[in-house]
Design a protein that fits this description.
Mean pLDDT: 76
Number of strands: 0
Shape: rod-shaped
Oligomer: single chain
Low-confidence stretches: none
Number of domains: 2
Structural class: mainly alpha
Helix content: 55-70%
């Protein structure tokens, strides 16, 4: 398994753990009421419902610097695989027929 596949697998696992885990807040009887919960509810009741009772999180923002770095390393990995296989072929041809 190459680095790109490992990174994709780790990212998928972290996204699965963030989504659909159930309600974060089990109600005032179990978890109580905090100032931050009240503030969120007063600011926007619908966002409060989505975040706290549904357990849905907003998507992480796209960071072009991180994605460019990931792409760069994936391309370097692919290039090294090609160069490595070319060296093996050259060595076979040189030593086998030379």
């Amino acid at each position: 398994m190459n680095l790109a596949e490992k990174l994709k697998e780790q990212k998928a696992k972290s996204q699965e753990s963030k989504r659909g885990t159930g309600p974060l807040w089990k109600g005032p009887e179990v978890d109580g009421i905090t100032f931050s919960l009240l503030s969120r509810f007063i600011a926007c009741p619908e966002r409060f419902r989505i975040l706290v009772t549904e357990g849905l999180q907003p998507h992480d923002e796209f960071n072009h610097r991180i994605e460019y770095g990931n792409m760069w390393h994936t391309c370097e990995e692919a290039a090294l695989r090609v160069i490595g296989s070319m060296r093996e072929q050259i060595e076979v041809c040189f030593f086998g027929f030379g």
